[in-house]
Predict the 3D structure of the following.
Amino acid sequence: MINHPEVAIVGVNRIVERPMIREGQVVARQLMNLSSSFDHRVVDGMDAARFIQAVRGLLEAPALLFIE
């Protein structure tokens, strides 16, 4: 639930090891889900999706935080 004056909530779930296919092989990978909720009276859905994708990208490659 989003409480006023908040307009968004992003939840970071725990990291779990799951099987993934990489280069044709099944390998164990650490994965984490992000949950998000936005007040669409204030935040446009496309902007919200872009924001979450940007957060995902930085979590997947944190070295990008140091690039200008």
About this structure: The helical segments are 45-60. The two ends are 35 Å apart (CA to CA). DSSP finds one helix and two strands in the chain.
